[in-house]
Amino acid sequence: MDRANSPSAGGRAFDRATLALLIDRFYTSVRADVLLAPVFEPVLHDHWPAHLERMVDFWCTACKIERRFRGDVYKKHMALPRMAPAHLARWLQLWRQHTEALCTPTQAEHLQDVAIGVARVMHLGWFGHLPSRDELLALVEAQGEFAAA
């Protein structure tokens, strides 16, 4: 059995429904976040339901649950204005928070690994540098210290 498809805490299987719940909770936090909301809300204000459905498709495809996603995530995100490394760090912090709250530790780790890979590629596109996994995690930790201060 694939790591991502192992049974989940609370009797939940790791499936489309679990990912849909995760995506809904995660993007509810994104929309309320003081750093991320100003980036995403102007672009998606009328289009959140369709975006959430596409993100469920994306994560289902990324986790090899089903193959529904078609599109260019990279190109769409490169068009976002005023991105900074702190945005990626915050995105990863929220993702970690929600994956750890909803998934088993193994599933959360897998989802976080996929998100780190996505964030590395986005970092390269926005800032011209492909950070190592450790560099990106250090950025997340530094952002967490800033947010806690």
Could you describe the 3D structure shown?
69% of the residues lie in helices and 0% in strands. It has one domain: Orthogonal Bundle (Globin-like). The chain is an all-alpha fold. The radius of gyration is 15 Å and the shape is globular. The protein contains 7 helices and no strands. The model is unreliable at 1-12 (pLDDT under 50).
Low-confidence spans: 1-12
SSE order, one letter for each helix or strand: HHHHHHH
Return the average pLDDT rounded to an integer. Answer: 85
Question: Would you identify the CATH H-level superfamily?
Answer: Globins
CATH topology tier name: Globin-like
Helix count, DSSP H or I runs of 4 or more residues:
7
Distance between the termini: 42 Å
Residue share in helix: 55-70%
| Rg of Cα set | 15 Å
User: How much strand content do the residues show?
Assistant: under 5%
Q: What structural category arises from helix and sheet content?
A: mainly alpha
- Total beta-strand segments: 0
Shape: globular
Question: Mind describing the biggest β-sheet?
Answer: none
Name of the CATH class:
Mainly Alpha
**Total of domains:** 1
Which architecture would the CATH scheme give at its second level? Orthogonal Bundle
